Amino acid sequence: MGDRMAADWHRLGNKSIYGISRALAKKGLDMLDMMGMTGMHINGSRSIIPGEVRYAVEETLGKQNFKELCSQIVFLEDIHYCQEALSFAEICNPQNEPVLKSPSSLKLPSLINHDYLVLELYHGSVGSSFSKLYIRAEKSGHPPAGPGILIDVEPTARFEETQQVVCLFTVKCTGKAIPLLDLMAVLGDHCPDYSVRDSNCWQYCRRTTKRLLRACRGLPELSAEELLRLQREELSVEAQIAKNHIKAIARGGKNSLEYYE
C-alpha cells in the first residue's frame, strides 16, 4: 500500500512539473495574443488550423527500398525526444514557410520550442548485417506540405551532427522488434489539426512517446523486469520533458553569458 501511494505521489509530481513548464509557455502565448502578434487568426494562438497526416518515408526512400524495408526485421532501439528553439517570427505565425536550419544555427531550447521525435531503428535480413535508420515524426502548422503530422526519414548525418543540441532526452527501447508499418501507424495515430496553444507539437510528442512505449510493452515474451522498466519510462515522460527542458534553458542562458563576457 505504501509503495502504491508513493508511486501515485511520484506520478502526480511528474505531471505537476510538466504542467508548470507548459503553463509558463502558455503565459508567453497569452502575452503575444494580447499584443495581436500570434498570426492573422481572430483567436490567436487558440485558432485551429485543419491538417492531415503525411507519410513521406516511402517517397524519401523510394518505392522499392520501402517495400524491402517493410519485409525486413525492424528493431526500435531508441526514442529521441528533440526540441529546437523557435524564432520570434515562427512563434508569431506558425504558418510561415519554415527554413531548414543549419547545424551551426540551431539553438538550445528556450521557453517556447518546436518538439519532435526521432526514432532510431535497425533493420536487415536474417544472416546479414543490420543498418541504422532514423525516422522523424512531428506536428506543425507549417507549409509547404501543409499543416498536420509529418513522418519522414531524418538523414543520419544530419541527426548525428545536431544530436547534442536538439536531443532533450532519450528513451531506451533496447531493440524491440516492431514492424515498420506498425510503428508508422502509432506515429500517425493523433489528430492532425493544429493549434499553436492547445493542439501542437508538445501534446503530439508526449502522447506519441507514451504510445510507443505501450507498443513495446505489448510485445510477447518480455521479462517482468523489462515490463516494469518500460512502465516506469512511460510514467516519467512528463518529468523527463520538464526536467531536461529546464536544464537546456539553463545551459542556453549560461552559454549566452559566457559569449558576452
Task: Describe what this molecule looks like in 3D.
- With 261 residues, this protein is an alpha+beta fold.
- The chain has one domain.
- 47% of the residues lie in helices and 21% in strands.
- The protein has nine helices and six strands.
- The protein has a six-stranded mixed beta sheet with strand order 1-5-4-3-2-6, sandwiched between helices.
- Strand 4 (131-140) and strand 5 form a beta hairpin.
- Helix 1 (2-34) crosses helix 9.
- It starts with a helix and ends with a helix.
- Residues 1-13 and 254-261 have low confidence and may be disordered.
Largest sheet: 6 strands, mixed
Number of helices, where a helix is a run of at least 4 consecutive DSSP H or I residues: 9
Estimate what percentage of residues fall within beta strands.
15-25%
Distance separating the two termini: 54 Å
Unreliable residue stretches:
1-13, 254-261
Structural class: alpha+beta
Q: Can you give the helix content as a percent range?
A: 40-55%
Order of helices and strands: HEHHEHEEEHEHHHH
Mean pLDDT: 79
Q: What topology, given as strand order, has the largest sheet? A: 1-5-4-3-2-6
Backbone shape: globular
Number of strands: 6
Rg value: 19 Å
Number of domains: 1
